[in-house]
Recover the amino acids of this structure.
């Protein structure tokens, strides 16, 4: 089962890299076409259009494939280890990558928006690449981690929240690149703004649940639900930042550059939450 | 309701605009007539205040995480405090005193952190109360009949011709909205039927659940602080029993401590078999392990740490036993990180320190299998004598016969009583329920007006107002298609902005 999980991981990694390449061809090709037509060139645009579109379609198919392989990898590993992906950085990185892909596919099919792939797929690929640099062996659970159900739910909810924040980040970056809707190969600003908001609407309640489940576990394992441990603190700050984003938008009508900047800051905090324990140690030393 | 688009979006979304907030305080009259109270109230209705407070708190929390924090036990002891600062000086240099003065080494328990939390709590309570009226008015009771102007100006609107009688058209509109899981209310007139449809109307109250849960969580921490207690280093050696103290009549005995390891090396299990006594009577017996504490009368006993102990026996010259108990070596010597513990012989005016060998290497001072004993005077702490004891052999020290009988172990428990935790978990549940209501089940409202035409057929107008935070484009076009197909007639109105091609 462990070997199967590793094979599936490699397949997912390869499919994802190919998918990213095709999406790049699709989008940058379209960008090239725009430049040509703006420049009044003589290249016959219709010949290239369908090819680029095909690249984009296969990019999507490969992304779905990668997601399926990654799901299989996680399932095989869970069968082999007997618990959810929460015991080390390898497991959690793969799970985070899975979450980013899951949310990406959800938003892509909801909004028929391929361009988001340019930002979200590199994040997912980066997470998988990071996973290859850390030990992937299945090690037995130390006493503090022997709470399968609670921790599996804790991590499952965390990857949904983190995945959603990755989508919001992608939408915010594209929003800042898109100037006055003048770039045709990018989605309209209003749509990017809405996707960012929708993603936070998904992620924010989940992040609250992540923190609460973490506190519940800490209370059972250590007898205190909150100890200002670096990872706890960073997760709270992340949640507060997205809370600030929501309030600024709903109550003060913040849109556009300022709220996009908050989303980017929020994702920075998310990554800090995720990797912070590598710098600070603390109770959360395993992942 | 005012019939211009701008006002609709504000009043409608149930969110309070700055102008409304300002009017709200003055309009209350009565107790709010006092200018000072009004000013304070207005100060706390500001969402900007909340944003500023959250950003400051974020910064404070980052500082508290990045800088070393003084432990609570050190803080109450001025000598230990100074010593802590000396050590910090090697790390933070000239900034140390400034950081200490500003309370940056004690962020989370410092006064200004509490003031910030207090301000944020007041801010949340006032903002929430301030929004209650507007939100309530949005939900109960809804206005069913809207004027023609409303449908003209609504952010999302459409008009359909219905080749059927007025009641038939109204019935079809109602059915199509019901199928979209909207709750429908109708007001039937002779010439027209007004329809109001909404779903998830309780979603609006999610915001109260979420915000009040924050206040409840803070209340939970206060309850815990006032009526709870904790001892994170409650140490009992195997075979010994210790009073818990902390105002209880409870004592805890350790029968056995077990640590197990996997073949690969990492720890598998730490567990203590403990007996709890109340007023000297055994009341509970259980095994506490990480992730499964023993509970008695709201007090929880968590497995926290463990270590080595030495069973020591002391007799005087006449052979009378003065001391015979396991001594937990729960501390570290300052010089070489050796485990150390102590016990007092009050009548003899002595403190006896027992030092174990350094683990993982051969220790020149304390060879494996031996214990080093250092005897000090109780008052003043001058060294009387020091010697090594090998196991089972009595030695004459300062006129006493001392034996290191055998090695043993101690367990370190975290003992907690926190009546606030139940409040915290209830508040947490409310928070999650509130947020899910608010974000996963958003409130949607639609109005329709079915009118009789001169030729006996009907005309249907539908409209949704803009929401400040999000676009209802997709939702509206879905509903519009439903209504149109239900009426089976031609439709007019805005066409969808979304194309079919992926972008």
């Amino acid at each position: 089962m462990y070997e199967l999980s590793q094979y599936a991981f490699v397949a997912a990694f390869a499919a994802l890299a190919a998918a990213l390449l095709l999406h790049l061809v699709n989008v940058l090709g379209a960008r090239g076409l725009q430049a040509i037509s703006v420049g009044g060139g003589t290249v016959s645009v219709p010949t290239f259009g369908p090819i680029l579109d095909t690249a984009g379609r296969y990019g999507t198919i490969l992304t779905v494939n990668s997601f399926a392989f990654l799901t299989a990898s996680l399932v095989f590993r869970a069968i082999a280890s007997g618990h959810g992906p929460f015991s080390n950085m390898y497991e959690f990185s793969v799970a985070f990558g899975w979450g980013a892909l899951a949310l990406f596919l959800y938003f892509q099919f909801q909004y028929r928006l391929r361009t988001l792939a340019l930002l979200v797929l590199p994040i997912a690929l980066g997470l998988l690449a990071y996973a290859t640099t850390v030990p992937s062996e299945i090690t037995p659970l130390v006493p503090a981690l022997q709470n399968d159900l609670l921790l599996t739910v804790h991590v499952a909810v965390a990857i949904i929240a983190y995945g959603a924040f990755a989508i919001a980040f992608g939408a915010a970056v594209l929003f800042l690149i898109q100037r006055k809707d003048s770039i045709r190969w990018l989605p309209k600003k209003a749509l990017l703004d809405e996707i960012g908001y929708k993603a936070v609407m998904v992620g924010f309640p989940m992040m609250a649940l992540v923190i609460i489940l973490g506190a519940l576990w800490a209370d059972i394992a250590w007898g205190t639900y909150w100890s200002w441990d670096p990872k706890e603190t960073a997760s709270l700050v992340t949640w507060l930042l997205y809370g600030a984003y929501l309030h600024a938008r709903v109550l003060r009508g913040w849109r556009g550059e300022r709220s996009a900047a908050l989303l980017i800051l929020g994702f920075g905090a998310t990554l800090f939450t995720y990797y912070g324990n590598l710098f600070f140690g603390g109770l959360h030393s395993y992942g | 309701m005012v019939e211009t688009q701008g006002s609709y979006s504000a009043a409608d979304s149930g969110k309070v605009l700055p102008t409304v907030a300002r009017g709200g305080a003055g309009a209350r009259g009565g107790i709010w007539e006092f200018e000072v109270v009004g000013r304070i109230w207005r100060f706390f209705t500001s969402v900007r205040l909340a944003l500023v407070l959250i950003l400051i708190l974020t910064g404070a929390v980052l500082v508290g995480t990045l800088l070393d924090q003084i432990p609570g036990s050190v803080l109450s002891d001025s000598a230990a405090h100074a010593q802590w600062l000396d050590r910090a000086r090697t790390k933070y240099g000239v900034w140390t005193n400034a950081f200490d003065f500003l309370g940056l080494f004690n962020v989370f328990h410092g006064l200004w952190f509490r003031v910030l939390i207090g301000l944020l709590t007041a801010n949340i309570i006032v903002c929430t109360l301030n929004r209650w009226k507007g939100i309530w008015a949005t939900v109960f009771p809804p206005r069913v009949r809207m004027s023609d102007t409303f449908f003209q100006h609504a952010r999302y609107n459409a008009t359909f011709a219905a080749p059927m009688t007025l009641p038939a058209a109204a019935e079809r509109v109602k059915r199509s909205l019901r199928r979209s899981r909207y709750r429908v209310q109708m007001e039937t007139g002779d010439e027209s039927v007004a329809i109001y449809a909404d779903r998830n109307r309780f979603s609006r109250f999610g915001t109260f659940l979420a915000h009040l849960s924050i206040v409840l969580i803070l209340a939970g921490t206060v309850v815990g602080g006032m009526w709870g207690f904790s001892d994170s280093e409650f140490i009992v050696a195997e075979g010994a029993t210790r009073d818990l103290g902390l105002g209880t009549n409870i004592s805890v005995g350790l029968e056995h401590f077990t640590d197990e390891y996997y073949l690969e090396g990492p720890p598998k299990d730490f567990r203590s078999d403990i007996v709890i006594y109340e007023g000297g009577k055994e009341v509970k017996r259980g095994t506490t392990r990480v992730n499964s504490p023993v509970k008695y009368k709201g007090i929880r006993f968590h497995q926290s740490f463990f270590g080595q102990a030495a069973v020591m026996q002391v007799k005087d010259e006449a052979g009378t036993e003065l001391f015979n108990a396991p001594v937990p070596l729960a501390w570290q010597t300052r010089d070489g990180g050796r485990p150390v513990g102590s016990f007092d012989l009050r009548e003899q005016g002595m403190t006896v320190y027992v030092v174990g060998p350094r683990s993982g290497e051969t220790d020149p001072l304390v060879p494996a299998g031996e214990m080093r004993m250092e005897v000090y005077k109780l008052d003043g702490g001058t060294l009387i004598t020091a010697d090594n004891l090998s196991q089972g052999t009595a030695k004459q020290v300062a006129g006493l016969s001392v034996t290191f009988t055998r090695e043993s172990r101690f367990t370190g428990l975290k003992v907690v009583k926190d009546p606030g935790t139940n409040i915290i978990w209830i508040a947490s549940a409310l928070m999650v329920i509130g947020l899910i209501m608010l974000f996963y089940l958003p409130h949607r409202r639609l109005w329709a007006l079915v009118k009789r035409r001169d030729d006996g057929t009907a005309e249907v107008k539908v409209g949704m107002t803009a929401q400040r935070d999000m676009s209802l484009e997709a939702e509206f076009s879905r509903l519009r298609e439903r209504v149109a197909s239900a009426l089976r007639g031609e439709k007019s109105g805005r066409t969808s902005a979304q194309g079919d091609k992926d972008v």
About this structure: Chain A has a mean pLDDT of 84. The helical segments of chain A are 2-39, 45-81, 89-111, 117-133, 148-177, 189-222, 230-252, 257-280. Residues 2-39 of chain A form the longest helix (38 residues). The CA atoms of residues 93 and 188 of chain A lie 32 Å apart.
